[in-house]
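So, could you explain this one?
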Amino acid sequence: MYIFLGNLSTVDICSTSNILPKLVSMLYSQQKTITFQECMTQLYFFIFFTCTEFLLLAVMAYDRYVAICQPLHYPLLMNLKHCTLFLVAVWTAAALEPVIHCVFIANLSFCSSHQINHFFCDISPLLKLSCSDTLHIEIATYVLGAIVGLIAFTLTLSSYVLIIYTIVNIQSADGRRKAFFTCASHLTSVLIFYGTSLSLHVRPMSTYFPTEDKLFSLLYIILIPLANPLIYTLKNKQFKESFQKAITLHCKTGNLDLDI
């Protein structure tokens, strides 16, 4: 579980680092420009980290399924070798998925305007900006998104259906409560991530409105990276103990007088 949490933290840090530093720099300097190469790079990594989080949350759902439904087999099914294979597959698939998007968009013509009605380079505002025929890109976006999303959603949903079925059949109330809290943090992250992602990406171009898109994008970029650390640490016993020790140590050292 902690291996997957480490990767999830890496994704959250990298996804915000891909967009926010450039945004802050633009706001501070008032030079709201970005080169085409930087724009394509930002677009690639935005899609890359989005796909990574989709697939990573699905793998984490399977991890929770094994922990709750097959606890005796957990050390065998989720050993270091299997976790490494899962992570290699996730990062490789996520790295390949944005290539087609970026190649198609890089070959578009932007003859009418070069002003992006957004605070970072995303697919929808770039397609709106182009004077070329973008139907093939929209179809490719929906197809590739459906493949990645369907795989991740199916694995996540099937894992939680089996988890809920197992929890319901636990005899003791204390056992059901412990089993539920085992996956509560991950389920909360899944609901927040899917809610913001679907609002942002699953819609036709005809329903694209820049103001709403900026709002959902801001929630997606800021809310999820801020929420995940809180969700996974506030209910973690080891974190609470370490945090209390750090506070106690700080209070003790704060009262010491140094004889210099």
Notes: The chain has nine helices and no strands. Residues 2-254 form a domain with the Rhopdopsin 7-helix transmembrane proteins fold (CATH 1.20.1070.10).
